[in-house]
């Protein structure tokens, strides 16, 4: 994503000259403004930010934290690891991505502790713990969506739906099969939801003759 953050929105835009058109990738903070301008709705200015009530809006914050924390951590961990040769050539202790360490809750312990003769350094990452937290997060997300059209029972898509689609689409269409994609494909409602939203997004790029 733009600046390493999700969601992003790929949109068509008109050029300054007649017939000049192109595409643009919008950062997360630019999406509400684009919706207001393009669709003529006050998504960002509504009383509950598009959610059905205040309770749903407050609940959405917890789901956003879940996606940007446990799901994002599992997505980072699933990326291809550096080769042994590249690790040896760094001449330093291998450390995980800084983004991963900031996403873990509770924070991961250091590689060395009180019993060590060396001062604390690095971070001890537990892949099995991250994998378990990811599975629990996906199960909860699937259960919360249920058979609803949009998350939290909203009548129209919200920021939570945009973020959920960004993560689910990325996971389901990753080039290499891995455990995180398999875990999502087991949730039929999440797969169907991602497919439906993807079709709607793709439909906005269809140019009429």
General description of the model:
By secondary structure, the protein is mainly α. The protein folds into two domains: 1-42, no CATH class; 52-78 and 125-208, Up-down Bundle (Glutathione S-transferase Yfyf (Class Pi), Chain A, domain 2), CATH 1.20.1050.10. Helices cover 48% and strands 6% of the residues. The chain has helices spanning 31-39, 54-77, 84-89, 98-103, 127-145, 159-172, 179-185, 188-203, and strands at residues 9-14, 21-26. It has a two-stranded antiparallel sheet with strand order 1-2. Helix 5 (127-145) runs parallel beside helix 7 (179-185). The longest helix has 24 residues, at 54-77. The model is unreliable at 91-96 and 114-121 (pLDDT under 50).
């Amino acid at each position: 994503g733009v600046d390493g953050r999700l969601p992003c929105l790929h949109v068509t835009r008109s050029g300054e000259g007649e017939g000049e058109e192109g595409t643009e990738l919008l950062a997360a903070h630019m999406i509400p403004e684009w919706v207001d301008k393009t669709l003529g709705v006050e998504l960002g200015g509504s009383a509950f930010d598009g959610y059905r009530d205040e309770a749903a809006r407050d609940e959405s914050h917890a789901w956003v934290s879940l996606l940007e924390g446990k799901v994002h951590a599992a997505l980072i961990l699933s990326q291809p690891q550096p080769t042994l040769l590249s690790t040896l050539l760094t001449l330093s202790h291998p450390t995980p991505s800084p983004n991963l360490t900031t996403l873990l809750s509770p924070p991961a312990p250091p590689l060395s502790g009180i019993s060590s003769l060396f001062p604390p350094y690095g971070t001890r990452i537990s892949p099995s713990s991250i994998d378990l937290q990811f599975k629990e997060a996906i199960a909860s997300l699937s259960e919360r969506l249920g058979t609803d059209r949009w998350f939290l029972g909203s009548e129209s898509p919200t920021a939570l739906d945009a973020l959920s689609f960004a993560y689910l689409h990325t996971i389901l269409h990753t080039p290499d099969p891995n455990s995180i994609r398999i875990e999502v494909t087991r949730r039929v409602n999440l797969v169907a939801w991602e497919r439906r939203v993807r079709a709607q997004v793709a439909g906005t790029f269809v140019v009429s003759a």
